[in-house]
Amino acid sequence: MTNQTAWAYLTVQQFTAKHAAFNKGGIRSLIFNEFTNGLAKSGAIVRIGRKVLIDENLFFSWIQSQNKVVAK
Q: Which helix (H) or strand (E) holds 66?
């Protein structure tokens, strides 16, 4: 029995092509501000040299964590 992890790393271009709700400028802005918006802490952004990759699972977990319910 082997333990395999399904990695889902995408470039910004691949991510926006796959998920039409996000555009390149918006994703790049989130990445640029990753230390102030909590994205860096989530681990969703991976850098290999100059290449920036997005871990889909961690990114969408971070998106879900941003969904704050405001009490009336």
A: none
Question: How many structural domains are present in the chain?
Answer: 1
Asked, for residue 32, whether it belongs to a domain, the answer is yes
Global pTM?
A: 0.81
Do the beta carbons of residue 11 and residue 57 sit within 8 Å?
no
- The beta-strand segments (E) located in the chain are 9-10, 45-48, 51-55
Report the distance separating Cα 14 and Cα 54, nearest Å. 9
Residue 4 included in any domain: no
Q: Give tens-digit pLDDT for 4-53.
A: 566 789 999 999 999 999 999 999 999 999 999 999 999 999 999 999 99
DSSP state of 50: T
